[in-house]
Amino acid sequence: MMFAVAMTFIDQTIVSVAAPDIVRELGLSSSGMQWVVNAYLLSLAAFFALGGRLADLYGPRRVVVVGTLVFVLASVLCGCVPSGEYAQTWLIVFRAVQGLGAALLFPAALAVVVAVFPVERRGGALALFFGVSGALTAVGPLLGGWLTASWTWRAVFWVNVPVAVVALVLTAYARIADRRRTGTLDVPGAVLVAVGMGLSVLGFQQAWTWGWGNWATWLCIVGGLAVLYVFVRYERGVRHPLIDLRVFRDRAFAVDNAVLFFAMPAFVPVFFFSSVYAQVSLSASPNQAALFLLYFFVGFALASQWGGRILDKRGARPALKAGTAIGAVGFALWANELTNLSMHDQWPYAALAGAGIGFVLAPASTDAVNRAIGASYGEVTGITQTVRNYAASVGLAVFGTLLSRAMTENVTDTLRARGVSPSVADQVARGITDSVSGHGDAAPPTGTGQVAEATRDAMSAVRLDFAQANQWVFYGMAVALGVGFLCALRHPGDRRASEEPVPPAGPH
């Protein structure tokens, strides 16, 4: 099952390193490229609870197989995206289908693990499952950098084919029993949560394009959050809910999810922003950008092991407090160092930031799942994974908007200092921002005249402008982890998991 979910975790990060090459070949905008990354995360969040429920109703083995087939078919189609005006839409749509496949696959695989291990061994098994699957995100940037540099960026999608084949063979060989549960599928709940998440993230993502003063921006954000509120109210009264929200009565579980919500905007989005930063501001190759992210994962891997030991001996509270505090300091120091434009001078801060995330991720996820057994495992897992992926989507959208705004302002100031009029400078700056996911100095503007000459002269300064814009993003990640630290202080610190399964849900 860990081999099966490897694809879903690798795909959270593998595309980020290939982003500049994808943008250059297909002509995507920077906002479009962010949607290519975000469509996967958003779809994963929106349909995760549905995947868990389908695994309960139709059996985990069957849903694992279906999820794997959907995922690998979408991966092949992503790699076959044609050039032209429909390239961006094609890639975003099939990235969303990938997310749907992952949403079917992951909870079903976890259900298999839960069914195989007895209660007294589930904690260790789940810690290993979450720890290994989380560490697999480290493979993404390295594999993506190597495939992009040595072959083609399309291979970052095609690499899922052999992995899926082996996963299907192993699933058949394991002879997994398909245990089904009675109940009905909460279709209205599934629609409400998908619409609510999709609308709210759309508003955050498009705020730069539409403007914060545009009614459409706030209609999407407020409307999406309102739909999510309706979803919560609806779930409290339905007999067989998509997500049993009563588990939030456990204070530790609520705190675990709050910490995950504020940690995830600093985890998955960092791969996109740091890899593009390395290739734009540091003029790094895809392979070098992948190695740049390796600093982050060295700290992440070491802290993950340490965090697991702390969880076993002292509970989740010490690990969550240490992780959020260390991560906030690490991201703040890293942000301060970005404008030095030196990859090797940044490694201590990248490693410190990774260590903070490593202390948080597995302990919070494992402690949350350990808060319920038996019939409530599916609901608990559905909530934690939905929170994680929705938070990552919101973080990528908000930070992407923040980056675009800061980048445009910086480039506008740079061009105005070279004699370009304010209106023209703003227009040119927006064009540079839209294409900034490619190498900043790879394609200098052509033509004659003051604007073209000033823009060509400014291309070296654009690298620094982009680094300064990224500082706002990394400081934002530090702030998010700081809020996570305040949440961690509310954790009760106990390590007990209820030995009584949660009874069937009903109107209450």
From TrEMBL:
Residues 1-496 form the Major facilitator superfamily (MFS) profile domain. It comes from Streptomyces omiyaensis. Its main location: membrane. The chain crosses the membrane at residues 34-51, 63-84, 96-119, 126-149, 155-173, 185-203, 215-232, 253-277, 289-307, 319-335, 347-369, 390-408, 472-489. The keyword Acetylation does not apply. Keywords: Antibiotic resistance, Membrane, Transmembrane, Transmembrane helix. It is a multi-pass membrane protein. It is found in: Cell membrane. This is MFS transporter.
